[in-house]
Amino acid sequence: MRIVIGQGSCGIAAGAEKVRKALLAANVNPADVSITGCIGMCYLEPIVDIYDDDNNLTRLVKVSENDAAAIASFVESGDVKAVENLVVTDEDSEFLSKQTRIALRNCGVINPEQIDAYTNAGGYSALKKALCELSPEEVIEIIKISGLAGRGGAGFPTWFKWNAARQSAGDEKYLICNADEGDPGAFMDRAVIESDPHNLIEGMLIGAYAIGAKHAVVYVRAEYPLAIKRLKNAIAQAKDKGIIGENIFGTGFSCDFMIKAGAGAFVCGEETALIESLEGHRGMPRLKPPFPAQSGFWRKPSNINNVETFANVAWIINNGGEAFAAMGTEGSKGTKVFAVTGKVKRSGLVEIPMGKTLRDVIFDIGGGMKTDKPFKAVQMGGPSGGCIPSDLIDTVIDYKALGATGAIMGSGGMVVMDESTCMVGMAKFFLDFTAKESCGKCIHCRIGTKRMLEMLERITKGEGKEGDIELLEELCYSIKDGALCGLGQTAPNPVLTTIKYFRDEYEAHIKDKKCPAGECSDLIEYRIIADKCKGCTLCARNCPVNAISGTVKNPHVINTEKCIKCGKCYSSCRFGAIVKE
Amino acid sequence: MVNLTINGKAVQAPEGSTILEAARLADIYIPTLCYDEAVEVYGACGLCVVEAQGIPKLLRSCSAKVSEGMVINTESERVVQSRKIAMELLMSAHDGDCVAPCQLNCPAKTDCQGYVGLIANGEYDAAIKLIKNKIPLPASIGRVCPHPCEKACRRQNVEEPINIAQLKAFAADMDLKSDSYLPECKPASGKTVAIIGGGPAGLTAAYYLTIMGHSVTVYDMMDKMGGMLRYGIPQYRLPKEVLDKEIAIIEKAGVKLVNNVKLGRDFTIKSLKEQNDAVIVAVGAWKSSSMRTPGEDLEGVYGGIDFLRAVIQGNAPAIGEKVAICGGGNTAMDACRTAVRLGAKEVYVIYRRTRNEMPADKLEIDEAEEEGVTYKFLTNPLSFNGENGKLKSVTLQLMELGEPDASGRRKPVPIEGKTEEIELDSVILAIGQKLVAEDVAELTLNSRGNIEADPDFFTTEIDGVFAIGDATNRGASIAIEAIGEADRCARAVDAFLNGQALDTRVPYISKRDESTIDYSDREKKERLNPKVLAPEVRNKNFDEVSLGFTEEEAQEEAKRCLECGCREYFKCKLLKVAQRYDIMPERFKGVMPQKYTHDENAFIERNTAKCILCGLCVRSCREVMNLSSIGLLGRGFTTDVSPAFSLPLDQTNCNNCGLCVQLCPTGSLTEKFALEKQVPLNEEYTEEFVDINGKQASVKVSRYNGKVLRVIPNDEISRNSGLTRDELMAKVIK
After folding, report:
1. B41 contact residues in A (CB cutoff 8 A)
2. What residues of A are in contact with residue B46 (Cβ under 8 Å)?
3. Which residues are registered as beta bridge partners of A50?
4. Residue B70: CATH number of its domain
5. In this structure, are residues B470 and B454 in contact, taking their beta carbons and an 8 Å threshold?
6. Is residue B525 part of a domain?
C-alpha cells in the first residue's frame, strides 16, 4: 500500500501539503505516505495516487484536506465508494495515457527526494554504461544517431555542440545546464528538476564525460526555490554515493557540481548572458563569435544545454540512439514536452512524439476549449515565438514546419486562445514582456521594442494611424536583423505573426477604432438591451463605480461616461441583456 | 595575411583581424559608436554591421573575424537601412539639443550661444571671430536685425530673452575700436567671381569667397556700398560711419568694390559671366510696393524706401507738418521716426490690425510712440484725396479683427459704412518693396516677380550664375536672411568653382521637445537693454538712439544665457554618424528614457538624458582603470549609467581620470572648460607632456583662440597621478 501525493510546485500551490498533513492526522500509516513530483495534470491538483499492494492505481483528484477521512476510510476498507467523487475520470486519464513520456518518464511516479527511488527505476545505469563501456566519442555518436536537438528553443543538434566543445583545446572545460526558464507560461524545466532531479544530474554527467568537462553548473532561476532545494538534495545524495566527485565509478572520470541561482532576468536564458551572470556580471549577452564552445565560462570552452535536453540523455544511452530517432519526423526526432495553458480545457505538461499535430495536443489531449467560444490561435514559444491561427491547427510538430508558420517550437510554451482574445492585445502583452526584459545593451532591442510597444499601445487605445502597420513591420524586420541576441531577434515574432494572420484585426483597431474581440477597453462600450433586461438589479449591484441606474423590474441603463469597462455587469447578467460593442 | 574584398577593393589583413580592423587598414570607413581599442568589443550599437557574401546574417564587423576570400559590402542597401533605423531609434531616445534654438532660428545660423558665452567670459576677440564666421557686418546687423534668435531664446520662458543682437553689436564695436579682426585668406585659387549688388548679400558672399581664395569684384549702382543697410535704414539706427568701417574691413580682406555701375546699362549678367568663372546676382528689391489705393499718384505720396533713401542722400522731400505712414513693419517705423526728425508735427501710422499684430520690432514701436508718433490701428486707406494734383487728406476705412488667417493672425475686416478722414500734407507707403524687373531681364521671373533660384544650391537657369537675397524667390526679407543665403551661396559657389555641386541644407540636428523643458529651477534675472537717448532729445536729430552696452552690462547680460546647446557639439561622434544617414527619428517619437539631468562634480558633468548606452564609460572604468566607479542600472528602455550604489560620483572610488569623458561619443559626459561661463567651442586638441613626480606624463590639451580650456590625462601616469584638473592645468600653463 502506497499513498503518493503530487508535490510539485503546482500541487503544493493547490494545497497538496495540507492534504498530506491531513492524511497523516487521519488514520493512515505514515509509512505508507510519500510524495512525488508533478504528475502533469496541473488542472486537477492536488492529486493523491493510491497504489494497492498489487500496485493497482486509484488516482484521486482535486483533493482537499477535508477529504482526508474519506481517503483514510478507502485505504482501510478498499471500498472505492468512500472517494468515488474524487476518482479521476476516464476522460481525464487520457490526458496522460495519450502521452509518450521520455524526459518526464519519472515525473509524478518516483519520489524526487530519494536517490534510491531513482536508481530503483533504473537510474544511473546509463551513466555507468557511458563511463564504463563507451568512449566520449561513442557517446557523442549515439547522441548524433538519436537526432536529439536543443530543447531550449533553438533546436541546434546537441551532438554538434558537444563535439565542438570536446574538440576545443584546453583541459579546463565546463558543462552548464540552462534552467533559467523564463518564458511566461512555460514550466517544463521546473517540473523536471522538482520531479526527477537525478535524471538531470545523470544527463549532465554523461554530457560532461562526452565533452571532457570536470565541472558541471546548473544555472537555475531563483524563483524556483523548490527546484533548487530538491536539486541540492539530489547533488548531496549523489555525492554520498560517489556519483558526483572524484573518480566516479572508479573510471577515473571526475566531475563536480555547482548550482547558481539566477536573479530573474529573462535574458539570462540567452547562453552568453547566462555566462556573464555566472561570472558575477550584469546579465548581458556577449558578442558571438567567439562561441561558448571556444570561449565561455571564465573564457574556457563551455557547453550549455537546456534541462529538457539533458533529461533525454540517459534514456537515449540506455535505449540507443535509434530508439529515440524512431520517433518523430525526418528533421525532428524524439519527443517534446509542452506546457499547455490558456483557454484549453485540460492544462498541464504534455510530452508527445514529434510529428503529432497541434490538434493532437490542444484537442485530443487538451480536450479543446474551456468555454463555448471557438479556438482562435495558439502562441508557441512564448514571447520569442509566434501565433498559429486555427486554420493551421493541423501543423505538424516539427522544427521546420512550425518555423514555416512564423512561430517557433520554442521551449514548449503553448498558450491557447479563443475568440475572446484580441490578437493586437496579445502581441502587446508579449512585447511588453520583452521590452521590459531587454537587457538594454543593443539599440534595436532596447529602443526598438519600446517604440513598437508604444505603437501597439496607441493602436489598442484607438490612436493608431494609417501607416502604423507598415511602420511596425519595418521596425520588426530591422530589429530581427540588427538585435544582438536571440531575445531581440525574436521579440518581433508575436507582432509579425499576428499581423500576418490577423491583419484585419489591426486594421479594425486603426481604421474603425474597434476591437473585434471586445478586449481593448478603450474601444468597447457596454450597453443594456432594454427588451432583455428583467430589472433584476444584479448588474447595478455589481458595478464598482455605480454607473448603472434603474429600478426593480424596469430596464437598467449604463452611464458610459462613468463606466470603467471592467465587464462585471456583462459577466453577472443572467439574461444576456448586456452587450459589449 | 588574409586576402578579402571590401566594397570591391582587394584588401589584405593580418590573420585574426576583425573586419573592422581590416577596413580601417584599407581606409574604408565603417561607423561605430561603442567601439574603442582601449576596451573589449561590446557590440551594442550595431552600426558597424556589414554584409558578407554567403552569410545570411548581418555581421558586426567589430567582432567578426576576416577569412580568406571573404567578400564584404559595408554600404549595401540592407546595411544602410539597418544603420539608418538604428540611428533613428537612437536619436528618438536622445534628449538633447545639439545647438541652441537661437542659432537654429538665426537665418544665418550664427553661433549666438557661442559669442554670448564668450562675451560673458570677456573673450571679446574670440567672440568677434565667431560672429564673423557667419556675419561680416556684425556692428551693422547687431543694430538693425529684428533678431529671430531672440524670438527662439528659451530665456523668455524664465522672464525675457537674452539681448543677443545688442551683445553682437557690442562685440563688433569693441572690434572696431582698434585693430579689427581680419581672417587669413586661403591661397589664391585663380578663379574670379563677379557679384552684382553691394548690399548685405553681395558683400557677405564677396567676403567669404575672398577668404576662400577667390578673386571677387562687387559691382553696385549707387555711390557707396551697403545697399539697403545704407540707403534703407536711417542714420539714428545705423550710423553710416559704422557701416563704412565694416565695409572697409571687407575691402581690406581683398574684395574689389566698384560703384556707380548698373546692370543693364554698364554690363549684363552674361558679359560678367564671360569675364568671370561665376556670377552672383544680389541686386535687391529697390521699388516700393503699391497699395493700389486711388490717389497714389498724387504729389505728396512717397514710397517708404524711396523716402528713406532721399533723406539719407540729403534730398529730404518737403513732407510738411501732417504725415501719415501706411504699414506696420520696420520700414514703417523707420519712416515715421524719420518724419518726426524732419520736423513733422503730426505723424500717424496707419495699420489695419492692432499693435499685437504689428510685424515691426516691439522696441521700435515703443520708441516711435515715445517720440510722438500716433498709431491709427484698425484703419485702412480707402483713398488719398487731392486738390490740383496735391495730396490733401486720406479717407480711412475702419476695421475690426475677424477670424485668424493663414498666418495665424486675426484677419482685419472692414466695418461697413464707418470711415474717417484725416488731413495730410504727405503720406508714405511702407508696405513692402519689390525687385526692379527690368534690371534682370536676362533671367526669367517667378509668379511673384522675383528671380527663381534654387533655395539650397542658389543656381539659376544660367550655368555659373547664382542669385540670392531680396531679388529672389519669395522676395524681400530681413538683412540677416540675405546674409545667411550669401554665406551658404559662397560655399556653393566655391564648390562650383571646384567642379562640384553643394547642397547647403542644414543636416540633421537633435532638438529637445520644447514642451518637456522645465525652467522652475532658474532664477529670474532681468534683461538688460543699452541706454538710449531721451525721446525729447533724439526726436530732433539723427544721432544714434542706442548708446550701446558698456562692458559690465554686456557681461552681465551675457551671463543670463541658459546654455541650451551641447558643449560637445563640435566633437560629437553620435551627431556625425546621424548626419551620414537620411534619418527621420520623429517616425519613432515616444517617451524619453531618462529625465534631463545636471549632475556634476568639480570637473565632470553628467546628463543621462543624452546617454546612448554605448557602455564605453562603464567598460573603460572597469577594464582600463580597474575601478568600476560607474555601472549600468536597470533594464530595458530605462537602463541607466549610474555611479556605484547611485552615489554622487565624488563619493565613489572615482579618481577623476577623465577617461570616461574622453571616450563618451556624445555629450552625456563632458568635462568643464576653464571658463566661468560654459560655452560650446570648437577646441583644438594637442598631446603634450608634463612632469609628474619626475616622470613624463602625457596629457591632452584643448585650446580655443589660444586659451587653454581643458587638460585631460592621457596615459597611465597622468590618469593615476591624483592631481586635480587645476593642478594639471597649472603644469601646462606654467
Report:
1. 287
2. 442-444, 482-484
3. A3, A58
4. 3.10.20.740
5. no
6. yes
